[in-house]
Amino acid sequence: MTFTEQLAAAWQKNNSLLCVGLDPDPAKFPAHLKGRDDAIFEFCTAIVDATADLACSFKPQIAYFAARRAEDQLEALIAHIHEKHPGIPVILDAKRGDIGSTAEQYAVEAFERFRADAVTVNPYMGRDSVEPYLAFPDKGVILLCRTSNAGGSDLQFLDVGGEKLYERVARLAAEKWNTTGQIGLVVGATFPAEIARVREITGDMPLLVPGIGAQGGDIEATVNAGKTAKTTGLMINSSRAILYAGKDENYGEAARCAALETRDAINRYR
């Protein structure tokens, strides 16, 4: 199946709009994992196995692996998800953005090396920097649009011909770039009015929404602003609040409880 087909199936099968972010920080791991060469893989697979039936997607952040020379554990983690939990798409959160020839290599990295089902991409350099990812027709390409950080307004709120820059990105994605139906957008939960505006511009395009949990985004406002007529359309990401819900060897169970609570909180407003 394509990324969008997998995502639609996961929304229904798991009755979930929850995306579990995988941002492994060894300093926060339970004591029994510290010092192990495979600690990142072991930590993340336990989280995945505990939450897979509650999630519509997983989102590993590549920097948390690359900074510790753990790209091999990232490869193994994604392979584990595909083998043990088939049908749950994996979004590689890499935020790549470069000229076409370099973007081709980043696309190979994401889709052939790591075998991700989708990747996050910075569209600042325009259409030709996005097209190499679209050359993989079964994969998802999720463009930064209205990000959850406070500094995002420095550029994303600039006026460009009578609309804000984030609105222009949404419009280009929906009307000109998404010819193969692969594109989604990142819109932060910290800005529900902008989620609603992006939904208005893009129709049923999938939206990856970071910013709930530790970042303080409001679940009710996020769901009401971003859900489609079918009450889907969203991948609402929570990372730290799930990953570090537990501090001891039962961290997987604690993560499951946090994920269940978050999924059900999201579903109350669908």
From TrEMBL:
It catalyses: orotidine 5'-phosphate + H(+) = UMP + CO2. The keyword Transmembrane helix does not apply. It comes from the Bacteria. Residues 17-255 form the Orotidine 5'-phosphate decarboxylase domain. Pfam families: OMPdecase. Its EC number is 4.1.1.23. CDD domains: OMP_decarboxylase_like. Pathway: Pyrimidine metabolism; UMP biosynthesis via de novo pathway; UMP from orotate: step 2/2. It is an enzyme of class 4 (lyase). The active site is at 95 (proton donor). GO terms for molecular function: orotidine-5'-phosphate decarboxylase activity. Keywords: Decarboxylase, Lyase, Pyrimidine biosynthesis. One of its GO terms (biological process) is 'de novo' pyrimidine nucleobase biosynthetic process. Belongs to the OMP decarboxylase family. Type 2 subfamily. HAMAP family: OMPdecase_type2 (MF_01215). This is Orotidine 5'-phosphate decarboxylase. The gene is pyrF.
